[in-house]
Amino acid sequence: MTDPRHLRVDRPHDGVVLLTLDNPDQRNAMSAPMTAAWEETIGDLAADLSVRCVVVTGAGTAFCSGGDTTWIAGEPDAGVDRLRTRMLAFYRAWLSVRRLEVPTIAAVNGHAIGAGLCLALACDIRYAAAGTKLGVPFTKLGMHAGMAATHLLPDVVGPAAARDLLLTGRVVDADEALRLGLVSRVADADGFLDDVLDTAAQVAATAPIASRLTKVALRDGGHREFEAALQWEALAQPVTLATADLQEGIAASRERRAPRFAGR
């Protein structure tokens, strides 16, 4: 049965949380109930130290078709200030996934369009199922891009490809998305989610303190200046060298076994 909040939360592996956008009749459009549930759930996960990796996917045949157009165009007589306030709240609710300090993976199981693609871009890693379509056709709908598309897309694919996708509004298939760097891997649709969850379990098995600090370092494309990277790493690496997990990782390597990291 479809969750009335349009969001399912599961824990398929230790440390792994699976968030499923669950509004398949509308191709997982970002409904008001889904938006509220998403913001609440991300807040809960941010405070949960047992979480080590978060995977986002969609129910049915789509990842996410973007904002619910009925909601977007639901106030035709509203002024710019009212609409700006409403859209900022919507953007910030969905982009709250970027607050998570654990790695996030978008399992793009089907079409990711507009704000739906922006949600995937807000995750650290994107994997796509074969046959998937991805695009930001905002201008074809008569609107400017939203949901930080003009920041997230250039950060992921570079300015030239971002201009191409944003100004033409064209939709690309999974293979072209891979060539552009929009996704990191394309896999067969059969068993796709299981494969992504296996990868998430591998991520969750890494040292959590080191993983969180690495994610923070890579935020917004990593350190732009060489010296800034050196200064950060000269602090962050000693933080991890002082952990019990470092001793466990070295011992496990010597003993040729899987490490058991405790996050301390």
TrEMBL record:
InterPro entries reported for this sequence: ClpP/crotonase-like_dom_sf (IPR029045), Enoyl-CoA_hyd/isom_CS (IPR018376), Enoyl-CoA_hydra/iso (IPR001753), Enoyl-CoA_hydra_C (IPR014748)
Stored Gene3D superfamilies: 2-enoyl-CoA Hydratase, Chain A, domain 1, Lyase 2-enoyl-coa Hydratase, Chain A, domain 2
Pfam family of the protein (one): ECH_1
Keyword Lyase tagged: yes
Gene source species: Nocardioides iriomotensis
Catalyzed reaction equations: a (3S)-3-hydroxyacyl-CoA = a (2E)-enoyl-CoA + H2O; a 4-saturated-(3S)-3-hydroxyacyl-CoA = a (3E)-enoyl-CoA + H2O
Protein name per Swiss-Prot or TrEMBL: Enoyl-CoA hydratase/isomerase family protein
Alphabetized UniProt keyword annotations: Isomerase, Lyase
SUPFAM superfamilies with a match to the protein in the record: ClpP/crotonase
MF (Gene Ontology): enoyl-CoA hydratase activity; isomerase activity
Family note: Belongs to the enoyl-CoA hydratase/isomerase family.
Biological process per Gene Ontology, one example term: fatty acid beta-oxidation
CDD domains documented for this protein: crotonase-like
Highest taxon, organism lineage: Bacteria
Keyword Lyase found: yes
